[in-house]
């Protein structure tokens, strides 16, 4: 009897310290989703190991080397066949030099099983792009100058072009709010809608692929000899970037 | 009944302790008093919290011990040099010579780095070349560096143990037990983390407590303008008041490298000639400039970026117009940029009595 009593106390102890597993028992058809981003240049995988060593050729024909690629996306949203939308909180700031930033698991990542398509915002939309509002992005010096409309960079892509010549030159392909004229600014985020169907049957990891070469390709063939740096205050360059980013992303493999 | 009581007591005692945090109180006569960093508003409003290792929390006793060690030449082989010899409070914790002179009269090869806001170096890579992770590890090196303090930690620990004050100070800070180099550098790191600079004129401007002159205002615009200075990509901005990214860049100082910088640490040729961006705070007190102290004035620094850039295979693409030598600032923009940069200096930091010997 006495031992039984002690065992009961010990059992209570174990239960006391264990995680509650029954919270989602009623949600048997729910899945948790996460995202993994991979990056390539027309099929050649680019990661922290080869970012600075890979020599690639852009659509216009210049050989380039890459030094730094960082980008911001936000408002991940999965939309099912009925048009129901599941909007995930948070934003994803990726630095290709830091592979721990390649993955993104939203806090509220539970959705019903079903068929979906993915959409997200390139950068921040107008409501989210509040100057200085995000301490982690400020800490990464990700800010977009107030004189250009403030808020944050969407992309910082730095490298050298014409590296096969005796006179390589730097480029700074930076994207953010577009300045129309002094004090007049135009939102420059993009809605990325990926039509590839995603069937969620279980907890799933969705690969999103970024083809870096597309920044220079479609619909605007980018001539770095003309547009290298500075591009941040260049309205036309900013709008061309907004157009070109639409074909950069695609859906890869779904692991579940 | 007694046996039942015993079972209950044992089980309940286990219950009470099983979920609790382990607090190792062994060896302390009195627990050290927690002394969390006083985070300036300009930081808490804008950037992430400082990095404090979980195994080295800030305490009053640890900071006091660290401060005493920092200013004590006992760390050097011949008892002539302290950390503060090359990291002087009046120079924002750097020194005046291009290369600091060690105890044997031999100069080093790099300029002494200023010390402030170190807990906000989020990657925790220290030295110009980032070769040490964490302040605690960084503080180990100068003691044994043959051209700095040229000592051994065995000798230092022996001296500290035989000292009339240190043993009790170590006990108060870290509990009873032997003095170790790890405890010593933990204490130094605690003191160094208190070296916070956040009260420049520009800080007060951001808080609405000061106004910029027209020159300082234009200087800020030069700093933030990709068409002109474009300084902000590496050196922070009004939303990042550290005024550094703490990252590694080749800023076009040389066409070839005598000092490989980060490349020496990583072994990767792509890192050759890269050094950590220093903060632009307190430039009024930290001359000479660059990792090798080659520039004795701010004018020389600005001229370098304006027309003195040297091309090399690893030059950062953020160094614009390399083929023209740089961004070609006008004399007016140079003067205004300098005025803005000087507004980032913080006299209350170098005069803070808590940081003096």
UniProtKB/TrEMBL annotation, chain A:
Pfam name, any one: MbnP
InterPro entries for the chain: MbnP-like_dom
The Copper-binding protein MbnP-like domain, residue ranges: 31-224
Protein name per its UniProtKB record: Copper-binding protein MbnP-like domain-containing protein
């Amino acid at each position: 009897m006495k031992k039984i009593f002690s065992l009961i106390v010990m059992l209570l102890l174990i239960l006391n310290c264990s995680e509650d597993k029954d919270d989602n028992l009623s949600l048997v058809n729910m899945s948790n989703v996460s995202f993994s981003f991979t990056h390539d240049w027309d099929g050649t995988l680019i990661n922290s190991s080869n970012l600075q060593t890979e020599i690639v050729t852009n659509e216009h024909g210049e050989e380039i080397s890459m030094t730094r690629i960082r980008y911001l996306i936000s408002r991940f949203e999965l939309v099912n066949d009925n048009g129901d939308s599941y909007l995930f909180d948070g934003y994803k700031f990726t630095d290709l030099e830091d592979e721990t930033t390649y993955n993104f698991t939203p806090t509220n990542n539970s959705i019903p099983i079903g068929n979906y398509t993915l959409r997200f915002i390139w950068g921040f939309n107008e409501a989210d792009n509040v100057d200085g509002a995000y301490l982690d992005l400020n800490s990464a010096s990700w800010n977009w100058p107030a004189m250009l409309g403030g808020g944050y960079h969407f992309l910082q892509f730095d490298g050298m072009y014409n590296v096969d010549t005796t006179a390589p030159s730097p480029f700074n392909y930076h994207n953010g709010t577009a300045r129309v004229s002094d004090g007049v600014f135009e939102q420059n985020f993009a809605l990325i809608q990926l039509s590839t169907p995603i069937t969620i049957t279980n907890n799933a990891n969705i690969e999103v692929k970024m083809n870096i070469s597309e920044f220079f390709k479609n619909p605007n063939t980018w001539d770095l000899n003309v547009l290298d740096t500075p591009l941040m205050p260049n309205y036309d360059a900013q709008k061309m970037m907004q157009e070109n980013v639409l074909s950069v992303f695609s859906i890869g493999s779904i692991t579940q | 009944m007694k046996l039942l009581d015993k079972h209950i007591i044992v089980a309940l005692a286990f219950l009470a302790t099983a979920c609790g945090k382990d607090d190792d109180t062994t060896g302390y006569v009195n627990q050290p008093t927690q002394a969390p960093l006083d985070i300036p508003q300009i930081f808490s409003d804008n950037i992430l919290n400082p990095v404090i290792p979980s195994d080295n929390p800030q305490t009053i006793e640890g900071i006091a011990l660290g401060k005493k060690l920092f200013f004590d030449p006992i760390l050097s082989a011949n008892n002539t040099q302290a950390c503060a010899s090359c990291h002087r409070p009046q120079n924002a914790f750097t020194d005046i010579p291009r290369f600091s002179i060690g105890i044997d009269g031999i100069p080093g090869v790099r300029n002494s780095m200023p010390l402030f806001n170190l807990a906000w170096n989020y990657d925790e890579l220290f030295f110009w070349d980032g070769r040490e992770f964490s302040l605690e590890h960084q503080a180990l090196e100068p003691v044994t560096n043959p051209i700095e303090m040229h000592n051994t930690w065995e000798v230092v620990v022996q001296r500290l143990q035989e000292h009339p004050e240190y043993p009790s100070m170590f006990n108060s800070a870290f509990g009873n037990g032997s003095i170790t180099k790890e405890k010593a550098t933990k204490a130094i790191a605690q003191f160094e983390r208190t070296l916070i600079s956040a009260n420049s004129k520009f800080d007060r401007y951001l808080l609405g407590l000061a106004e910029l002159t027209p020159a300082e205002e234009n200087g800020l615009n030069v700093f933030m303008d990709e068409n002109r200075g474009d300084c902000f990509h590496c050196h922070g901005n009004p939303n990042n008041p550290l005024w550094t990214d703490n990252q590694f860049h080749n800023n076009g100082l040389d066409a070839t490298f005598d000092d490989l910088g980060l490349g020496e640490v990583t072994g990767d040729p792509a890192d050759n000639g890269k050094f950590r961006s220093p903060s632009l705070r307190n430039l009024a007190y930290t001359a000479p400039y660059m990792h090798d102290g080659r520039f004795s004035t701010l004018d020389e620094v600005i001229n370098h970026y304006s027309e003195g850039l040297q091309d090399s295979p690893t030059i950062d693409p953020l160094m614009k117009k390399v083929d023209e030598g740089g961004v070609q600032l006008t004399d007016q923009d140079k003067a205004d940029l300098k005025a803005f940069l000087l507004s980032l200096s913080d006299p209350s930091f170098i005069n803070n009595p808590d940081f003096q010997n």
